[in-house]
Amino acid sequence: MTLSGKASASPARPARDAVGRRSVGAVLAAPAGLLAHLFDAPMRLWQRIAGRGGMIAFFLAPNMAIFGLFVIVPLGLNVAYALSGGTALFLPQRSYVGAANFERLLTCGDHMDPATCRDDLFWIAVWNTVRFVGLQVVVLVGVAMVTALILNGKIRARGFWRAVFFFPVLLSPVVVGLIWKWIFQRQGLLNWVMVELGMDPVNWLTDRTWAFLFSVGISVWAHAGFYALILLAGLQAIPRDIYEAAEMDRTSPGRAFRRITLPLLWPNLLVVIVLALIRAVQVFDEVYVLTGGGPGTSTMYLTQYIYETGFASSLRNPGVAAAASLLMGGVLVVLTIAQLGLTRWRDRQ
Known about the structure:
Number of strands: 2
Oligomer: single chain
Strand content: under 5%
Largest sheet: 2 strands, antiparallel
Distance between the termini: 85 Å
Strand order of the largest sheet: 1-2
Number of helices: 13
Helix content: over 70%
CATH architecture of the largest domain: Orthogonal Bundle
Order of helices and strands: HHEEHHHHHHHHHHH
Shape: globular
Structural class: mainly alpha
């Protein structure tokens, strides 16, 4: 009788536990259900009054308000600063100068020679940025592509290697700069290793060429994992049977990459190129921590010029800094539109 009693009681316990869990869930969900019930009638009434378009506007209004507050309003203030002069920070204390700030930045005897420009430091930053973007974007896209192809292959511990390549993206740019500065400085880790091997230490960060190359390499190291994930997602979306058919036709791996992978990966590749270009033009944090723009002005890029002109310099000029930021933004918009137009033309072809 005892055994039968235990046997009959055992199925009842899970049933009681399930009922208890449902009761707790119902208690926790009750406030949400009550809140939804209270809003149901007013929302139905508003839907009848405003219609479908009104409901769309109602739900978009909070996002548009936030976008306007943190994007449109600062952009308008930036334009106002660009059209005003003086060193005062508050707009009411600044005088209207029209396009004088833009004229100061763009006046040059020869735009290829910053020494002939009225604001030579601006054009030094421009050409430094052009050099940086031209090298960094090419290397970054190449490294991201190779990384994505490797991670998409059949390798052991693939999940672990994906995490390893993505880890630098999680670090703050300031932390990235400090880590590499600790490695490359005069008393840093790299020179310590060289001394231990019997070599002379090198002032890596005081050499113009090395400082520029390190700024490019560190930027690639810090951001390649993010773009590799975008390309990896595109690679995984390509059907495997296409590659299997190519193998049956004895297509070489290089030809399969050119004829299959690149065309099907082009949308993802375009996103990577556009995002990498925008980020490269705006480079600041890690390079500023690593070199401070030096040696001299060899690693001073546009964003650092804008920061120092508007805030850090003793002869700060917010109007010139605002004008420079608008010119940089305009160039980015033009480049992005050109790339999107090129993609549409290629798709039509």
